[in-house]
Amino acid sequence: MKVFNQHINIDFPNHISLTIKREDLIHPFVSGNKFRKLKYNLLQAKDENKATLLTFGGAFSNHIAAVAYAGKEHGFKTIGIIRGDELLDKIQENPTLKFAQENGMQFEFVSREEYRLKSEESFIEKLQDKFGDFYLVPEGGTNELAVKGCEEILTDEDSVFNYVCCAVGTGGTISGLINSSLQNQKILGFPALKGDFLTDEIRIFAKKDNWNLISDYHFGGYGKINLELIEFINAFFEETKVPLDPIYTGKMVFGVIDLINKNYFPAHSKILLIHTGGLQGIDGMNIKLKQKKLPILKTND
């Protein structure tokens, strides 16, 4: 599969043009920014002669699915520390966990209280006692090697854009975009989580100050979704044939278009949206939407 820039054929006010970089097409199962974040981490794990990758994630984590498949593809065993011990007997009902298990991932389910300790040395030592030697991939995949991979998202052809916009989870993707951007470009991040802690996380990795976070489009917090967002994602797919995930990219695209209509961007702005993938999570979200008697998200005609 090949990444390409797709122009969005919608007439926007003030002669603004919108283009989406189809990072969701980079790999059939290790999608978008997960592919970028894992690239150099997998090479490092090989260099360190590690046989096992261990990482963390929630019930519908794109990262868990990506590590499971990438691990199998590159010859690693994989272990997923999963938030929520109530999920232990629900693997077959959960499309993400089922996929990860089918691709060889071993699970350790922990309570939400325990999961909060995942960065603490004592918690990591317990995992080493239990599972032996492993290469640790942080939750969401963000570390220096992940940022290095995300620096490769922008290419020379992207120099024509004034604005580059992406969803923000752990801050790795936007940090890579900032580092590889041109000084005259503005990088806008749309956090999928509530709270202001991300600014400090991004400053750890970002080497420029040509960026800003827009925190008005999280729809109530991580994983939250409502009818307005569902209808927007489905209408956008009908018009463009670009599927959007509801956790990250869907909220970012909603935000950018809303800001265009509110005259946030100067006339004649050329805006590049980064599609960071995450489409595997839609099956799980659609199960929840059916339970709530809401319309489901469309990913094909």
Automatic annotation (TrEMBL):
Pfam families reported for this sequence: PALP
Span of domain Tryptophan synthase beta chain-like PALP: 18-277
Family: Belongs to the ACC deaminase/D-cysteine desulfhydrase family.
PANTHER family hit by this protein: 1-AMINOCYCLOPROPANE-1-CARBOXYLATE DEAMINASE-RELATED
Species of origin: Flavobacterium nitrogenifigens
GO molecular function: D-cysteine desulfhydrase activity
InterPro entries linked to this entry: ACCD_DCysDesulf, TrpB-like_PALP, TrpB-like_PALP_sf
Name the UniProt record assigns to this protein: 1-aminocyclopropane-1-carboxylate deaminase
Keywords from the UniProt entry: Pyridoxal phosphate
Source organism superkingdom: Bacteria
Catalytic residues of the enzyme: 61 (nucleophile)
Cofactor: pyridoxal 5'-phosphate
Residues modified as N6-(pyridoxal phosphate)lysine: 34
